[in-house]
Amino acid sequence: MKHFSKEDISKMSSIYRLNMINSCTGYKSANLIGTKSKKGVTNLAVFNSVIHLGSNPPLIGFILRPRTVARHTYENLKDTGGFTINHIHYSQIEDAHHTSAKYQENTSEFDQTKLEEEYKIKIEVPFVKNSPVQLACSYVNEYHIEENDTLMIVGQIEHIFIQNEILEKDGWLQLEKGGIVAINGLEGYALPKHLDRFPYARPNLKQK
Amino acid sequence: MKHFSKEDISKMSSIYRLNMINSCTGYKSANLIGTKSKKGVTNLAVFNSVIHLGSNPPLIGFILRPRTVARHTYENLKDTGGFTINHIHYSQIEDAHHTSAKYQENTSEFDQTKLEEEYKIKIEVPFVKNSPVQLACSYVNEYHIEENDTLMIVGQIEHIFIQNEILEKDGWLQLEKGGIVAINGLEGYALPKHLDRFPYARPNLKQK
Known about the structure:
The structure is a homodimer.
Chain A: E1 2-5, H1 6-11, H2 14-23, E2 28-29, E3 31-36, E4 42-47, E5 51-54, E6 59-64, H3 71-80, E7 82-87, H4 93-98, H5 109-112, E8 117-118, E9 127-128, E10 133-145, E11 150-162, E12 182-184, E13 188-197
Antiparallel strand pairs in A: 2-12, 3-4, 3-7, 5-6, 6-11, 7-10, 8-9, 10-11, 12-13
């Protein structure tokens, strides 16, 4: 195996280190977060840091760098209190990745890609049309990660929309049936194939 | 599409809600976190919440419920200041999942599964043998998520070990080449296949 120490990492070129550190913790969730500004301009940005925080209440978290392209997402969700999380279908990866380009705040990523806005019930922020799983969330709180000046946003799930074929009888979403991708590092996209699902693990009765 | 509102979610049975909310944010990283107690008992537990926080310094985060099976992981990493993160190979998923069973603190999950301890350089906490990517991390900080009494642990990467065939020339890890899995919900395991990797996204020169 190749070995890199903390000293080796500190001496890497910034691009080499960015590639390695972003991919060395494993596959990430692939989501498009949709928001709308007070002026009515929609925004869409790809995120690979959405995590599960708890089921009851249904809480999620994601990491934001307030000074990067994600700034519009942050400003909008603070202004309106809401955002959507949209899973990425394998046919959408090129456009999903393009939402990471730095556009001005009066430009909507929906106008710069083939991704289309979708509105449902009375929710004012846009969903991504044909996204296999769509969540509408409300802003709950934020935690400042002082070690590197990032924010963890905490959101509550208000509505879930799921393509029929993905939902199993016991509430579990079989994501492969939706053609949903995972992210490898910052800009690699992969399509997972289901291997197995295990029951709740209980201790062995006998020592091995 | 099927639609579930906040009210629908609150009325679900706890198992149905657990399954849905854990799987509705997309694929998660699949990692085994290794620690050792002050008494020298090793511990291994599967986590699906490890995220990237930053590259320079190289920081990661993960979510912990201090009152669950992850309690031993928490006590050990606080006591010793260190832990390892080990990617899960597809041949290891059944044993990896079994580490979520609730064992007493004097029992090592390494003794209850076929997973083997591996020690390298002068690191005292165990790695998982044959894990394709292994990180040694130091405890940096923790943030209490007051909404549901969870903790986000922040760790710094001290050492990275990578199987030779996974590492690309520019520092990116092509995780498919390591047979590394992703997690779908709490207990579904999937094997991703690489689709594409895109360059740094720049705005379109012309409006579409």
